[in-house]
Write a structure and sequence with these properties.
mainly alpha, 2 domains, two-stranded antiparallel sheet, 2 helices
Length: 84
């Protein structure tokens, strides 16, 4: 995605030729644009975020349970141990 003529007019002295579209006067030029999502994309983002959070919580709980069983096998009881 390059810069068109209107962008070069706005940049003024920052870049002298269109071949220098990413730098001007020795500095990096950053053009920010706001992200816009459709309704479908927003719903997918929400679903993926919820699944990621649930996956993280599930991973933590599984690791905590495994650590508890590991410590119970070595007679270190911080929580309850499973029945033998």
């Amino acid at each position: 995605m390059g810069l068109n003529e209107s962008h070069w007019k706005i940049l003024g002295g920052w870049a002298s030729t269109p071949s220098k579209n990413s730098s001007g006067m020795g500095r990096h030029v950053e053009i920010r644009r706001r992200l816009t999502f459709t309704g479908f994309q927003k719903s997918v983002i929400v679903i993926v975020t919820i699944c990621a959070i649930l996956g993280g919580v599930g991973g933590f709980v599984t690791g905590f349970n495994n650590a508890s069983v590991f410590l119970c096998a070595r007679h270190m009881t911080y929580l309850s141990c499973p029945p033998k």
